[in-house]
């Protein structure tokens, strides 16, 4: 229903599996079809997304910071808050903040509740750019999944969510036992 691609067609992953089975017939490849296709799709997504952000002189990382700030216009976000929202190291975030501040898209201000801390605010120019960029970004996301019907999109989203939540749970367990 709504599928626009023939799934009986052989893809890179099918060939990869066959090559491994030809080489090591006893190899358990049960995880490979899903993970290899996620990795392959991630590559395609990155190609389209990076090209789109380049049109705005942004990287995906810079957009993530701007988007977090634009989505939370009434909140004062510290670098630690941003770090939690976009899953990045403090060093990587500092570099992004510096670049965005140099471009005049954000400003750092003293944190009124912590004399040593700062809060990060999006500038009007940064907000305008972010709202323009997000329009093209979501259009690309929509185009990337157009090969699936609405029901398949919902099912894939649910399955990926289930997979992500299971991994998050496993990581939390490993962190507690370490």
Automatic annotation (TrEMBL):
Gene3D superfamilies: Winged helix-like DNA-binding domain superfamily/Winged helix DNA-binding domain (1.10.10.10). Residues 31-165 form the HTH marR-type domain. InterPro entries: HTH_MarR-typ, MarR/SlyA-like, WH-like_DNA-bd_sf, WH_DNA-bd_sf. Pfam families: MarR_2 (PF12802). This is MarR family transcriptional regulator. It comes from Serratia silvae.
